[in-house]
Amino acid sequence: MTPEAGRGGAASLPITIRRLTKRYGKFTALDHIDLEIKSGEFITLLGPSGSGKTTLLMMLGGFVQPDSGSIRFGDQEVVLLPPHKRGIGMVFQNYALFPHMNVAANLGYPLKLRGCRRDEIADRVAKALELVELGGYGERGVHQLSGGQKQRVALARAIIFEPRILLMDEPLSALDKNLREKMQLEIRRLHDRLGLTSVYVTHDQREALTMSDRIAVLNRGRLVQLDQPRDLYEQPASRFIADFIGETHCVPVDVHDGKALLFGKVLQLDRPLRSAARAQSLALRPEKLHLLVGDVPPQLNVIEGKLRQHVFQGDSIVSYVTLADGREIAVRRSQGFGERAPEPGDSVRIGIAPRDTIIVPDDEPTAPT
Amino acid sequence: MTMAHSEAGQGLNATALERSARNEQLRLLFLCAPALLLIGIVALAPMGWLSGLSFVGKDGLTFANYERLLHPSYQLTLLSTFQLAFVVTAICLVLGYPLAYLTAQMRPRAASLVMLCVLFPFWTSLLVRTYAWLVILQRKGIVNTWLENLGLIDEPLRLVYNFTGTTIGMVHVMLPFMVLPLYAAMKSISPDYLQAAASLGAPPVKAFWQVFVPQSIPGVIAGLIVVFVLSLGFYVTPALLGGGKVMMWSMQVERAMEVYADWGAASALGVVLLVMTIGVLWLISRLVGIGSLIERD
Q1: Predicted pLDDT of residue A37
Q2: Going from the N-terminus, what domains does chain A have, and what CATH number goes with each?
Q3: Which end of chain B is more exposed for a tag (fewer CB within 10 A), N or C?
Q4: A contacts of B212 (beta carbons < 8 Å)
């Protein structure tokens, strides 16, 4: 029996990735990736398609070989280890449940491979089904399950043999929005309960923000930022990340001697600039902006523009404002304006607190190693 | 207003919508009509006529044609027919499975090249191929000459005018019928299944047998049925390569016609072959469920 098949207290493992590189012809899928994942951490690889996030996950699983680099699970170098010897649980995008086996046989398969006795398998299958709230579904065929149920079975199968690392490749992308949001929380709760080291791949930034301890943002094969969700959202390292995460409108600013100028006015900032480059961008999040009515509090940065329209979105009202250079930005507020609502065509002023005034370099930096 | 309509039982436009659905079905039937007619005229009607003939003797209605088939020589023919079909089918599976597996793993361009080679035999006439085997396998043929020159054998092997020659020739003819359904079934198996098996701890050989092979079964069964059924009724290759030593059911039909000019006997033979073929299909469908051939994820 392999160690990971041992019962109880299966310890999770940290993952250390060093200088991991993969090229397909001229295309660089992964470019010297360095990443340390702590034991028991839930980390998400986030990026647009072609960013290398899936390639990286497949390398952790052993399904894709890097050109060079190192992957360690704990103290063990695994880069040359075939997938079936890595002891990882994996959830695939299309679930990959074996259609010729029923639910119980699917769940029992990894246990059978590890030489568990029949009654032990039955026992653990029943427990795993309870864990994903599918008690009594063992005899069902895979075809008889709904998308959400397949998802749960796939998850149960990936953890039933108590792996120390769980990999998930966009497992929720086939589900509808409501179910997806429910499953996000469920997967996260399961993670907290089992304490596995989890690596999750998604292109959905909201999903990443919801679920992760830390998020690794990849773009064009490079790791561009690794941070906790809040830090990533509030302090994006580049314009790419600001655009990719959350709703963002960018306005160009000039940088001189550590000062950022917007339309010739110096912006108040509460932290030093990340880069000294001359042309950078001011990243504006709609919910951090205030459409000012009346007096302007002196501590706010102010942008002037012309109101184009209000859009009612149920929980909030979004106002679109055209700036002096023709750019359009959005301001979101949760309640109406009452009597003094500005009309479309009015000149308006938009306030931003210095701590929400995010200046990002247009070029992508490499994450510090 | 609309609410009132639907509550009254007759929904808005219900009659018209029903009629349009019925018209759609009629249109489909009309489009199928030429094919259905053709099958009726060239297949079903002659078959009915033949089975009618098999019950007609010199003095009216009779079972004599069938009683004659109880003779031991016919039983021997039946046995050798099934034997040959069985051996040919088994060899086709053993040769075809790895070939289909390899092709299914290839890149599209390489795979289409291999499929081209598999289909190559279809482009030459059956007769030409069979005579080619005759030339290759005969006493002084290329195979025997090479084997002798290499010193592997002292005297020529009997490769033709017997069961061996017939088997070789028929495997060649039947292989594409095995490879095509196998390839189609394997192509529909996502590589994710094997990756999933590996992630769960299955070494490649186990993953192949426990995850890949079971999912390819529909293709295997389709291939087995096609090859076995075609082999049961095969004529040209056994007649030429068998050298009279391999007696197939189809050759009995020919003999009844050519030698005895006995339509009744020939028809009875045909009906028996048809019934046995249907019997085999029924047996297989009982064993595996014919639904499993059609039903896919």
Answers
A1: 95
A2: 3-233 (3.40.50.300), 249-361 (2.40.50.140)
A3: N
A4: none
The C-alpha of A116 sits at a distance from chain B's nearest C-alpha, in angstroms, of 13
User: B236 forms bridges with which residues in the sheet?
Assistant: none
Q: Can you give the pTM of this predicted structure?
A: 0.80
Q: What is the mean pLDDT of chain B?
A: 88
Chain A interface mutation, best of B195, B200, B295, B297, highest count of A Cβ atoms under 10 Å: B200
* In the predicted structure, residue A116 carries a pLDDT above the cut 70: yes
Q: What percentage of chain A carries pLDDT values higher than 70?
A: 94
What's the gap in Å between the CA of B198 and the closest CA on chain A? 5
* CB contacts, 8 Å: B107 with chain A: none
Tokens of B168: 């070789």
Q: Encode pLDDT of B10-42 as tens digits.
A: 788 999 999 999 999 999 999 999 999 999 999
Closest chain B residue by Cα to residue A1: B201
**Which chain B residues have a beta carbon less than 8 Å from that of A89?**
199
Residue in this structure with the two tokens 């079972």, named with its chain if needed = B63
Q: Which of B193, B199, B211, B215 to mutate to test the interface with A (most CBs of A within 10 A)?
A: B199
**CB–CB of B198 and A82 under 8 A?**
yes
B85-107 pLDDT tens trace = 999 999 999 999 999 999 999 99
Chain position carrying tokens 């929005």: A177
Distance of CA B153 to the CA centre of its chain: 36
B146 burial type by CB count under 10 A (0-12 exposed, 13-18 middle, 19+ buried):
exposed
First vs last C-alpha separation in chain A:
38
Rounded distance, CA B16 to CA A41, Å?
A: 62
Q: CB under 8 Å to A18, separation ≥6 — which residues?
A: A34, A69, A70, A71, A72
Is A83 in contact with B198 (Cβ distance < 8 A)? yes
Q: Which of B33, B53, B12 is nearest to B263 (CA)?
A: B53
Smallest Cβ distance to A83: which of B190, B192, B199? B199
Closest CA to A203 of A313, A93, A109: A93
Secondary structure class of A115 (helix, strand, coil): coil
Domain boundaries, chain B: 2-53, 71-294
Residues 6+ apart with CB under 8 A from B115: B103, B183
Residue A369's SS3 state is coil
Asked if the Cβ–Cβ distance from B195 to A2 is below 8 Å, we say no
Interface check for A143 against chain B (CB to CB < 8 A): the answer is: yes
Nearest CB to B193 within list A89, A93, A98: A98
Of the listed ranges A137-146, A338-347, B13-22, the one predicted with least confidence? A338-347
Count of Cβ atoms closer than 10 Å to residue A4 Cβ: 20
